[in-house]
């Protein structure tokens, strides 16, 4: 009986490990057929005879994003939507542009670890560990420096310099997902009741109302 329970536990762990990331390839590639009406986890595959080089190509990361917004940053994503050939590959990337004093605000990627390198300028970056410690792990990065943000943890980047900054990041999912903390908590539709947020953040309801009005 004990050996059976041990076997079942081992199988459960193996299954959880196997499904903890994007599905593995079972063929050379599975170019996304974005015209298909079939609903699957990801995209269905285009017929291999219709696959072309353009399915594995994207041009545009040399173009700076428009940072004229409240956060002073712009993210240019390259994932399976932009490159259909990334479907089932378990990887994507982004270019992030930052104006002086601009930031990529606290957010998380529920499905991916991120590795970021600075191409131009300097950034103050960091992530926060999970409960109960909530430790801030941060670093000032210069051109050529690399930093890793673990999967699912809240993280940010801030350009404290006087010049524009540019970073390039790779993520371990074709669709990492983005949850921006402020937008999620204070900008949900419908709104999270203000009394709940006031209690959670230990502030007055009018403060919550004011923050929600900014988003």
Describe this structure in words.
Mean pLDDT is 90; it is low at 5-20. With 215 residues, this protein is an alpha+beta fold. A 5-stranded antiparallel beta sheet has the order 1-2-9-4-7, with no helix packed on it. The N and C termini lie far apart (57 Å). It has 4 helices and 10 strands.
Please, how many helices? 4
Sheet-strand content, in percent, reads 25-35%
- SSE string, helix = H, strand = E? HEEEEEEEEEEHHH
**Residue runs with pLDDT of under 50 for 5 or more positions:** 5-20
The chain-level mean pLDDT equals 90
Number of strands: 10
Q: What is Rg?
A: 21 Å
Helix vs. strand class: alpha+beta
Distance between the termini: 57 Å
Largest sheet: 5 strands, antiparallel
- Percent of residues in helices: 10-25%
Strand order of the largest sheet: 1-2-9-4-7
How would the global form be characterised? globular
């Amino acid at each position: 009986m004990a050996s059976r329970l041990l076997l079942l536990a081992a199988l459960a762990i193996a299954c959880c490990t196997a499904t903890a990331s994007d599905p593995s390839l079972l063929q050379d590639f599975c170019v996304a057929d974005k015209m298909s009406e079939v609903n699957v986890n990801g995209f269905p595959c285009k017929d291999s005879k219709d696959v072309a080089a353009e399915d594995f190509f994207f041009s545009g990361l040399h173009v700076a994003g428009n940072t004229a917004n409240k956060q002073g940053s712009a993210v240019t994503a390259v994932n399976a939507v932009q490159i259909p050939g990334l479907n089932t590959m378990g990887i994507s990337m982004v270019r992030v542009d930052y104006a002086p004093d601009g930031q990529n605000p606290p957010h998380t990627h529920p499905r991916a670890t991120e590795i970021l390198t600075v191409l131009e300028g300097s950034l103050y970056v960091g992530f926060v560990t999970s409960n109960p410690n909530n430790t801030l792990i941060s670093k000032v990065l210069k051109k050529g420096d690399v930093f890793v943000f673990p999967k699912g943890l809240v993280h940010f980047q801030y350009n404290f310099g006087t010049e524009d900054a540019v970073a390039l990041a790779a993520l371990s999912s074709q669709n990492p997902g983005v949850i921006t903390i402020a937008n999620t908590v204070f900008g949900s539709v419908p709104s999270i009741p203000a009394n709940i947020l006031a209690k959670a953040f230990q502030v007055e309801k009018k403060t919550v109302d004011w923050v929600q009005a900014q988003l």
